[in-house]
C-alpha cells in the first residue's frame, strides 16, 4: 500500500521532470530569404532544415510573379505576388521541392529540405 510519503515523492519526481523538460532547449526554425528580381530567383538551390521558413520577396519594380511548388511535397501556390510583396512558406517535408513561377517559366529554384 502506498503511503503519503510515496505520493509526495512521486509528485516531486514529476515536478523535477517537468522542470528539466522546460529547461531543455528546442532548435528553432530559421528564416531564409529568396529574392525575385530581373525575372529570376536569387539562387538556383537553397538548403533548409525541416520546419524552416523560406520568404519569397518580389524586388521587381513593375513585374508580378506567381510562385508555386511542383509535386505533392511541401505544396503551395503564392498566387499573384506584386512588386514589393513578400510571402513566407514553411517547408516541413524532407526532400527536394521544385519551385517555379507560373508567369515566367525560366524562373526555377530547388529547395532541399534536410
Question: Helices and strands in order, then pairings?
Answer:
Elements: H1 4-23, E1 31-37, E2 40-41, E3 45-48, E4 52-58, E5 67-69, E6 86-91, E7 95-101, E8 108-113
Parallel strand pairs: 1-4, 3-8
Antiparallel strand pairs: 1-2, 4-6, 5-7, 7-8
How would you sum up this structure, described in words?
- With 114 residues, this protein is an alpha/beta fold.
- It has a single domain (31-113), classed as Sandwich (Immunoglobulin-like).
- It is 18% helix and 37% strand.
- The chain contains one helix and eight strands.
- Strands 2-1-4-6 form a four-stranded mixed sheet, with no helix packed on it. It has a four-stranded mixed sheet with strand order 3-8-7-5, with no helix packed on it.
- The N and C termini lie far apart (51 Å).
- Mean pLDDT is 87; it is low at 19-25.
Strand residue content: 35-45%
Cα-atom radius of gyration: 22 Å
Largest sheet: 4 strands, mixed
Question: What is the third-level CATH name, the topology?
Answer: Immunoglobulin-like
**Tally of distinct domains:** 1
Order of helices and strands: HEEEEEEEE
CATH class: Mainly Beta
Amino acid at each position: 500500500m502506498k503511503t503519503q510519503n510515496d505520493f509526495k515523492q512521486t509528485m516531486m519526481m514529476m515536478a523535477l521532470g517537468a522542470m528539466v523538460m522546460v529547461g531543455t532547449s528546442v532548435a528553432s526554425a530559421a528564416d531564409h530569404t529568396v529574392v525575385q528580381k530581373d525575372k529570376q530567383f536569387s539562387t538556383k538551390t537553397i538548403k533548409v532544415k525541416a520546419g524552416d521558413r523560406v520568404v519569397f520577396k518580389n524586388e521587381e519594380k513593375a513585374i508580378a510573379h506567381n510562385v508555386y511548388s511542383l509535386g505533392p511535397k511541401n505544396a503551395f501556390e503564392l498566387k499573384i505576388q506584386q512588386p514589393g510583396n513578400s510571402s513566407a512558406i514553411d517547408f516541413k517535408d524532407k526532400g527536394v521541392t521544385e519551385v517555379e513561377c507560373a508567369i515566367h517559366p525560366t524562373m526555377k529554384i530547388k529547395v532541399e529540405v534536410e
